[in-house]
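Private note to self, pasted from the team thread so I don't lose it. Backbone tokens:
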């Protein structure tokens, strides 16, 4: 029998570099979000539709960009250490994040591409203790988000009493007993919602009928409050429904502001009480025309209402 020998010629290989990958993180459920988000990118100053590219979702739930305008050379690189020391092309891009299911606030990100590894926000977002998943982009709940089961919720409609308009993108940080600081972001209409687990009960009434203590339904906790607000103007408008958008780092890096329990006489609001099973609705005690009713007044630090 004659042995047949075959010679195999190796085929040329093509290596592609994804210029950007993002993993989004729900800080309420402590889980990655891989559905319902429309994530698009365009070069800075070129938001017109033909220049936009939409991310695709990988099997691991990461939003990945490829075929970005002007990035062909960098996407065709080797992706090794030498490549990342000096990428063939580097360009600034705007990343637009919109939740089609209205669970999370929509926002923008600034990114210099290509970016090695998963993108991570490096501005003033509270991450102490660190988030469960490294290299993530945090998502902030929208006021339209349904309340997750067995969660406490704090709501407010923030109103800039001096500018006589909604306090768009103002932030409110809550210090809940036994939990890391929790930040809520208002939408362009000043509406915000903060969802969080109930704190551990204090002096909980045991099941024994002879025991003393407080029943779960009568549990209460004191929450300390801090606000930030710089009167940000829209950074861009999304093509979808002309939604006003703001850059995430600009939102979370705003200056200290004051929220008011009472506008006359002026009395700041620095804390509130959480009762088990009841929503917290923050509002100022007294408002005057043309201020809408049932709003929480806010002013930049040092400004009276």
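Design output:
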């Amino acid at each position: 029998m004659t042995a047949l020998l075959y010679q195999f010629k190796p085929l040329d290989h093509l290596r592609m570099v994804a210029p950007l990958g993002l993993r989004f993180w729900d800080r309420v459920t402590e889980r990655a979000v891989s559905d319902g988000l429309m994530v698009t990118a365009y070069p800075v100053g070129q938001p017109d539709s033909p220049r936009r590219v939409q991310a695709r979702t990988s099997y691991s739930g990461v939003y990945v960009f490829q075929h970005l305008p002007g990035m062909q050379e960098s996407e065709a690189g080797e992706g090794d250490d030498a490549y990342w020391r000096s990428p063939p092309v580097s360009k600034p891009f705007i990343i637009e994040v919109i939740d089609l299911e209205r669970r999370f606030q929509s926002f923008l990100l600034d990114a210099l591409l290509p970016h090695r590894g998963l993108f991570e926000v490096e501005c003033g977002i509270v991450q102490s203790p660190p988030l469960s998943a490294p290299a993530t982009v945090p998502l902030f709940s929208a006021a339209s988000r349904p309340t997750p089961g067995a969660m406490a919720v704090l709501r407010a409609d923030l109103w800039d009493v001096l500018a006589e308009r909604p306090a768009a993108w103002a932030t409110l940080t809550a210090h809940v007993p036994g939990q890391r600081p929790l930040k809520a972001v208002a939408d362009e209409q000043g509406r915000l919602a903060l969802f969080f687990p109930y704190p551990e009960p204090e002096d909980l009434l045991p099941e024994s009928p002879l025991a003393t203590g407080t029943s779960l339904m009568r549990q209460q906790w004191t929450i300390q409050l801090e606000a930030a607000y710089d009167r940000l103007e829209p950074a861009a408008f999304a093509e979808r429904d002309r939604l006003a958008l703001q850059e995430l780092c600009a939102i979370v890096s705003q200056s200290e502001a004051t929220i008011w329990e009472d506008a006359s006489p002026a009395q700041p609001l620095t804390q509130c009480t959480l009762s088990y099973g009841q929503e917290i609705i923050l509002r100022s005690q007294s408002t005057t025309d043309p201020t809408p009713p049932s709003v929480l007044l806010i002013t930049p630090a040092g400004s009276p209402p």
